[in-house]
Design a protein that fits this description.
This protein has 202 residues and is mainly alpha-helical. Helices cover 63% and strands 3% of the residues. α4 (47-56) crosses α7 and α4 packs antiparallel against α12. It comes from Daphnia pulex.
Length: 202
């Protein structure tokens, strides 16, 4: 029922609890709900932003040190197998990937292998590099900003615009209640844009 309500393929599994929450609110007599979506994306509240900042430190090292010494040392097979060096290997493996591609390193589809999940007939009909190209274009269009603010703006486009907001809007609609997003008030948005990075992420 929830899947059929959407007018497009949609894979956010938290749509189910969102629907049941909205339905329970409706049954309790509520006609409008307030959603907290946007807080993390305005103020850097998700732990992944801190993680990306740590990866970003890699780019501050001199290029010659990174490519001439550290990458060959930590990206070697023996480093990947050595207990004390496995974490360093994993860090370098991720940190050397530029943004926004680094954000996709935990993408389940990529981990499973695109040819192992999608049929050859389907793959012939699509540009498998299309999503990455689109994300790179969005990232590049954001303009001059710190990496944190660029990542936040990137998440406004994808996490909020294509996942969280459609999920909440559609599930509340299906349950018969309206929804508001107070964290996305224009005043709060403007305020968040004026805050320095250190106020958002320690």
């Amino acid at each position: 029922m929830v899947a059929a309500h959407y007018d497009q393929p949609f894979g956010n599994s938290s749509a189910l609890p969102a629907y049941y929450c909205a339905r329970m609110a409706k049954e309790a007599g509520a006609s409008r709900m307030l959603a907290g979506d946007g807080g993390d994306e305005l103020y850097g509240g998700n732990s992944r932003y801190a993680k990306q900042r740590i990866f970003g430190l890699w780019q501050l090292l001199p290029s010659g040190l990174r490519t001439g010494l550290l990458e060959p040392m930590f990206m070697s097979d023996w480093a990947a197998r050595t207990p004390g060096l496995k974490k360093a290997h994993s860090y370098v493996e991720q940190a050397r990937v530029g943004m926004p591609a680094r954000l996709q390193m935990y993408n389940l589809l990529l981990h499973l292998g695109v040819p192992d999940v999608l049929t050859p007939a389907f793959l012939q009909e699509v540009d498998t590099q299309g999503p990455a190209k689109h994300q790179q274009a969005v990232w590049s269009s954001i303009g001059p900003a710190s990496e944190l603010n660029t990542t936040l703006a990137f998440d406004w486009r994808y996490t909020l615009g294509e996942s969280d907001l459609p999920k909440v809007r559609e599930t509340t609609s299906l349950a018969g209640v309206s929804v508001g997003f107070p964290m996305l008030d224009n005043g709060l948005l403007d305020f968040s844009l004026r805050l320095p990075d250190d106020f958002k992420l320690k």
